[in-house]
Design brief:
Elements (H helix, E strand, L loop, with lengths): L1 E5 L9 H6 L4 E4 L12 H13 L3 E6 L5 H5 L5 H16 L4 E4 L11 E5 L5 E5 L1 H12 L10 H13 L2 H12 L11 H9 L6 H22 L2 E4 L18 H10 L5 E6 H5 L6 H7 L4 E6 L1 E4 L5 E4 L8 H18 L7 E4 L19 H22 L1
Parallel strand pairs: 1-2, 1-12, 2-3, 3-4, 4-7, 7-8, 8-9, 9-12
Antiparallel strand pairs: 5-6, 6-11, 10-11
């Protein structure tokens, strides 16, 4: 498996030379500055690739080549958006980038309510607190029907939190939730968020699935021709958010996605943190079921609470069996070698990490500190080496 690291280009406070010192040999990045729906120019892709090579590493995964919201909503004439996506794929392939991570989460990407929740021993982590999310939906956003989606104790705690909160508390909560917005990092206030959510009014899970099916039908044949591997990222967290239906949250959803277009180009990003946040999910079993279609791996751990809250635990200290995941992935690599496949090495990255020591002073992207991720990389490297030694 290839050790990789997510890098946000010029938007990142962590430099390529620093990343090289972690031991990672692969870079996971994207052209984050380009608005959704526009073609990624080939020369811009080449410049990013060459810059990474000059630092002694390779651009191994594009994360992400994002989808315009109109594709997810299925609104308007999408011909030009699909054509732009296919052309971006062709340009990426021409410059040697063949693995593309993306997601189909409506409007909001990952969602957390706390960006600096304290952890035992010092440092901080990202946390999703059911009480705060309910307080946001009911008492700040005023979303109709939200009260039906939370148990009575969470509703009561949410009312108490809101009554005791200051404006600064509410502003911090809104900021944390808005940090999950991808792309050029636009942020909504309460009124504009209501307006954005309204564009999804009436859309059901079946509707979103139909729009996803159309996306696959439009782009997977091109990916096949180019020898590319697209791999969808699971919903984070794996549940409906703000009343928006999510369709890549559990084993049944992933079964549907893999069956929706039977091609190696239609694959999965195995994110153990996203899947692990779902109480009914077994990330090891999901990995076993779809091992042959996994093209990229995020190794992250979470610790869940009974009320639906969860926090990002240390990489080897949560609810997910990382050793079990390692066994599945290393066995799959061996199977691919025996089968004669060309994609025998799975790129993986330590996904997120605690903010430790001087990380608090770096102003890095939430969840993407230097020291915390380097700790995770080192710990997971040890697990993978140990499992490989025991099974060789």
């Amino acid at each position: 498996m290839q050790e990789s690291w997510r890098w946000y280009g010029d938007l990142d406070t962590i430099s390529l030379p620093e990343i090289r010192q972690t031991g990672a040999t692969g870079i996971v990045t994207a052209l984050h500055e380009i608005p959704y729906g526009q073609v990624w120019p080939r020369d811009t892709i080449a410049q990013r690739r060459d810059r990474i090579r000059a630092a002694g590493m390779e651009w191994v995964v594009c994360e992400s080549l994002p989808l315009h919201e109109d594709i997810k909503r299925g609104t308007g004439d999408l011909t030009h958006l699909f054509a732009a996506y296919r052309q971006s794929l062709a340009n990426m392939a021409a410059e040697g980038i063949h693995t593309i991570c993306y997601n189909f989460m409506p409007l909001i990407d990952w969602t957390r309510t706390d960006l600096t929740a304290p952890v035992s021993g010092g440092g901080s982590c990202l946390r999703f607190e059911a009480t705060k999310m309910a307080a946001f939906e009911l008492h700040m956003l005023g979303r109709q029907g939200a009260a039906d989606e939370y148990p009575p104790d969470v509703l009561e705690n949410a009312a108490q939190w809101f009554a005791a909160s200051t404006q600064a508390d509410r502003d911090a909560l809104l900021n944390a939730i808005m940090c999950g917005l991808p792309g050029a990092y636009d942020r909504y206030d309460i009124d504009s968020l209501r307006g954005a959510l309204a564009t999804y009014d009436g859309l059901t899970k079946s509707d979103i699935r139909a729009n996803y099916q159309r996306f696959l039908d439009e782009v997977i044949p091109t990916a096949d021709e180019l020898g590319m591997r697209l791999c969808v990222h699971p919903d984070d967290p794996p549940r409906d958010i703000l009343g928006l239906p999510r369709i890549v949250s559990n084993a049944d959803d992933i079964d549907w996605v893999m069956a929706a277009y039977a091609s190696p180009a239609n694959g999965l990003t195995l994110c153990t943190g996203s899947l692990g946040a779902g109480p009914g999910n077994d990330p090891v079993a999901i990995a076993e079921t779809h091992a042959s279609r996994i093209h990229f791996v995020h190794l992250r751990n979470v610790r869940k609470d009974p009320d639906g809250s969860f926090e990002e635990a240390a990489h080897l200290d949560g609810d997910t069996d990382m050793t079990g995941i390692a066994r599945v992935l290393l066995a799959e690599e061996k199977r691919r070698v025996a089968e004669g496949r060309t994609d025998t090495t799975l790129p993986w990255r330590p996904d997120h990490g605690h903010a430790l020591l001087s990380d608090a002073d770096r102003q890095s992207f939430p969840g993407y500190p230097l020291i915390g991720r380097m700790r995770g990389l080192a710990e997971l490297r040890g697990v993978l080496h140990a499992v490989q030694a025991m099974t060789s």
